């Protein structure tokens, strides 16, 4: 779990990872090694204050050099919200995330359809499964050119799509995508806020963290 | 020292909600006749020494690496006067 200056959801993501059966290892943006972790999560928040563009400064932090290198070798990487923005700025994922089309911050329970269960982060789900997790973003509108969108859909790389209306203007209702190899996944909604019955909309998000156990232990 | 300016604008096909908000506010303030507003960013770089072709090429690399995201933005580089009064680039 990487913490950047301005990360918000790193502790929740650590908790979700432990509930998913893992040891959560905190990493700092200035770290030059990944301490032998089996997977990396880039959490939500406002890293570096969202200065310049969301994720633009984080992308050049020392730890990201290691993450980009390891992702190329197949290490599972999940970027949630701001983490998704960092992955796009890093060119580990295509496209970009821009300001919500309606210009308001959105914070609500959001229904999603899981469309790719082949990634290390989504194996616990069934194809087409509908889940409800938290969505909270100001700049969550996914954009890419038509050719890229066609390729993502053609290769089954749309991992999750918004249901019940588009909350932020994302093209083709895209909520999450993967890279070509499938090990890098970016997701705008927050599964780490839906892992316990006590708070949040339920436990539908836990699958992102239990999926990894099946992958890493396999 | 010369000033090199990098202007960054969202590509025309990318929605600009901030520009739209500004555009919406103008008529409410009595300013009429504006068909559209696009909002961008301006970076002013104080360059040490001469602004050579090589230096400008480097500014281009800065612009495409950090100052802009080429997936959604275009940029323009131009040299703007001189602060030291030596010569105009």
TrEMBL record, chain B:
The EC number on file is: 6.3.5.3
Top EC class, one word? ligase
> Which organism encodes this protein?
Nocardioides donggukensis
Give the UniProt family note: Belongs to the PurS family.
Protein known as: Phosphoribosylformylglycinamidine synthase subunit PurS
Q: Which InterPro entries match?
A: PurS (IPR003850), PurS-like_sf (IPR036604)
Provide the protein's localization.
Cytoplasm
Q: How does it assemble?
A: Part of the FGAM synthase complex composed of 1 PurL, 1 PurQ and 2 PurS subunits.
Q: Which GO terms describe its molecular function?
A: ATP binding; phosphoribosylformylglycinamidine synthase activity
Q: Which UniProt keywords apply?
A: ATP-binding, Cytoplasm, Ligase, Nucleotide-binding, Purine biosynthesis
Q: In which pathway does this enzyme or protein participate?
A: Purine metabolism; IMP biosynthesis via de novo pathway; 5-amino-1-(5-phospho-D-ribosyl)imidazole from N(2)-formyl-N(1)-(5-phospho-D-ribosyl)glycinamide: step 1/2
Supply the Pfam families for this chain. PurS
Question: Which biological process terms from the Gene Ontology are attached to this UniProt entry?
Answer: 'de novo' IMP biosynthetic process
Q: Which NCBIfam families match?
A: phosphoribosylformylglycinamidine synthase subunit PurS, PRK05974.1
What cellular component GO annotations does this protein have?
cytoplasm
